Amino acid sequence: MLKVLIIDDEKPARDELVHLLRTEPLVESIDEAGSVKEAISKMFAKKEEDIYFDVLLLDINMPDIDGMQFAKKLNAIKNPPLIIFVSAYSEYALEAFGVNAVHYLLKPVESQLLHDALYKAMSILVSRKHFKPTQATSQKIWVKNSEGKQHIETRLIDYVEAHKDLCKVHVGDEVFEKVISLQSIQKELSPSNFCLIHRGILVNVSRISSFEKTGEGAQVILGKGNSVCRLPVARRRIHEIKTTLGIA
């Protein structure tokens, strides 16, 4: 999971990003800096603890050193944090990708676009040999069964369906219930193993046997033979799922 540092001289802008990131299952920790100088100090302090930020949510127009200048300096070091620019101005977008930014988000930031940018950053980091995504806090979760409650291993879960604050956890032919929101159960499951394919449907990537285009978009197929389950993929999720599955 991602360690994120927000760098923006405007506190309301930082507060809004913190609010969005707190509900983001890909994020492990959030820190803030009101300037590039403060950000550098925090980065060095973390380094002394052998902790490194994975992603910087970086504003461009700031006092002392602006975000673009900072990004250029970071490009000179080995394995720098990935940069997602967050700006109120669109005219810097082309220059941003010239300094290898992962994404360019316009204020006010939309939660789905932020998630997509973080997912892209996660995919890049996973491809780096030194980066290993943090596994879920527990490899088991509590669910309801006919006799009460039981622990099930998350690796055995096929997919999860969310209905408001109730999630149905599908494990083979069995369906368990858990009184929890989709956002909360995402935090209990490893984001490197589970992927949101549609509103309210979270799938164990290792359970996907194939991916198909359909007249309405796409679907993933879980299982084989007589135990096949077909689940719809939202149009806006198709690229993300194909990237996860390694489909060109």
Strand neighbour order, sheet with most strands: 2-1-3-4-5
- Low-pLDDT regions: 134-138
Beta strands, count: 15
Which percent bin holds the helix content? Answer: 25-40%
* Quaternary structure annotation: single chain
Morphology call:
elongated
Q: Classify the beta-strand content into a percent band.
A: 25-35%
User: What is the H-and-E element order?
Assistant: EHEHEHEHEHEEEEEHEEEEEH
Radius of gyration: 20 Å
The whole-number mean of residue pLDDT values reads 86
Structural class: alpha/beta
Between the first and last Cα atoms, what is the distance in angstroms?
25 Å
Largest sheet: 5 strands, parallel
State the helix count: 7
Write the layout of secondary structure elements.
Blueprint lengths: L1 E6 L3 H11 L5 E7 L2 H13 L6 E4 L8 H8 L7 E6 L5 H6 L4 E4 L4 H17 L12 E6 L2 E6 L5 E5 L2 E6 L2 E6 L2 H7 L5 E5 L2 E4 L3 E7 L2 E6 L6 E5 L4 H8 L3
Parallel strand pairs: 1-2, 1-3, 3-4, 4-5
Antiparallel strand pairs: 6-7, 8-9, 8-12, 9-10, 11-12, 13-14, 14-15
Features:
15 strands; 248 residues; 7 helices
Describe the model.
The structure is a single chain. By secondary structure, this protein is α/β, with parallel strands linked by helices. Helices cover 28% and strands 33% of the residues. The protein has helices spanning 11-21, 36-48, 67-74, 93-98, 111-127, 182-188, 238-245, and strands spanning 2-7, 27-33, 55-58, 82-87, 103-106, 140-145, 148-153, 159-163, 166-171, 174-179, 194-198, 201-204, 208-214, 217-222, 229-233. The chain has a five-stranded parallel β-sheet. The protein is elongated.
